[in-house]
Amino acid sequence: MKFDNQTAIVTGGTRGIGRGIVEAFLKEGATVIATYAGNDEAAQNCLNELSEFQSRLVIKKCDVRDENAVKELFHMLDTTHPKLDILINNSGIRKDQVTAMMSLDEWNDVIETNLTGSFLMSKYAVLNFMGNRYGRIINISSIGGKLGLPGQANYAASKAGQIAISKSLSKEVAKRGITVNNICPGFIDTDLLADLPPEQRKEYIKDVPMKRFGRVDEVASAVLFLASKEASYITGATLEIAGGL
Ligand code: NDP
């Protein structure tokens, strides 16, 4: 899986799973546009740690919830990187709360970041991809979108929604050489789960047949496969990377 002369956008590419995907693409020769929301320190660390690839790495702040910011990003790329090949919709947040206590803000924040963000990024990416009659979109959904863990009505709805978007979109663009797929990670060790109380973490591990949380590189390698030219007949599909959960 070589990505020489290909350009990939990875949203939320400065930390966690996104950071792992960015590094994997860079190692396979791609040029990468990594976006983030507001954590400048993490963005700077990412840039420093990946400095050996600096000629092929662009890091850009872009809130995926904001259509104007997304438009501005693609407008900039029209000049700097006019041929885009791959979009990884990875940025995401959780704001867990049982439904009866969940505020509308907690609901909206998660839906807008995880679901509306994927819609906006996909919309503008597809407009670019159509010109080349080639493209790969991969949504980093979640096993939570299929299982529906308690306290995650907002998160589960956003993640199931990403799968639904890709089923529709994959059919709209199939004839143009563009594929749209989903990855559903299980529990992966990143900042996103850093607030889990140790007892809850142990409970979750008990439920995983492999008896451990996953690593970002274990997600990244599957993302690279779906993003490769070799995965040309896979679209509208969902791949679980969840240790058997
Ligand atoms: P992290 O919290 O480690 O990183 C999240 C990334 O998303 C950061 O780069 C963050 O930017 C970015 N981000 C958040 N909000 C926005 C926004 N509005 N606009 C642009 N970027 C944004 O998360 P993970 O790496 O763990 O998760 C990545 C994806 O994988 C998410 O979609 C998550 O739902 C999914 N996932 C994760 C699992 C896990 O166990 N970790 C399991 C299943 C799915 P900044 O640094 O600026 O905040």
Features:
245 residues, alpha/beta, Rossmann fold, 15% strand, globular, binds NADPH dihydro-nicotinamide-adenine-dinucleotide phosphate
Structure description:
This protein is an alpha/beta fold and 245 residues long. The chain has a single domain, classed as Rossmann fold (3-Layer(aba) Sandwich). It has eight helices and seven strands; from the N terminus they run E-H-E-H-E-H-E-H-E-H-H-E-H-H-E. It has a seven-stranded parallel β-sheet with strand order 3-2-1-4-5-6-7, with helices on both faces. Strand 1, helix 1 and strand 2 form a beta-alpha-beta unit. Helix 1 packs across helix 8, helix 3 runs parallel beside helix 4 and helix 4 runs parallel beside helix 6. The radius of gyration is 17 Å and the shape is globular. The model has no long low-confidence stretch (mean pLDDT 97). Bound molecules: NADPH dihydro-nicotinamide-adenine-dinucleotide phosphate. The site of NADPH dihydro-nicotinamide-adenine-dinucleotide phosphate has 32 residues, from helix 1, strand 2 and helix 4.
Describe this structure in a few short sentences.
With about 240 residues, the protein is of the alpha/beta class. Helix content is about 45%, strand content about 15%.
The CATH class is identified as Alpha Beta
Query: Outline, from the CA principal axes?
Result: globular
Uncertain regions spanning at least 5 consecutive residues: none
Task: State the end-to-end CA separation.
Answer: 28 Å
> What is the strand content?
15-25%
Looking at this structure, what is the CATH superfamily?
NAD(P)-binding Rossmann-like Domain
Q: Provide the number of structural domains.
A: 1
| Largest β sheet strand count, sense and barrel closure | 7 strands, parallel
Structural class: alpha/beta
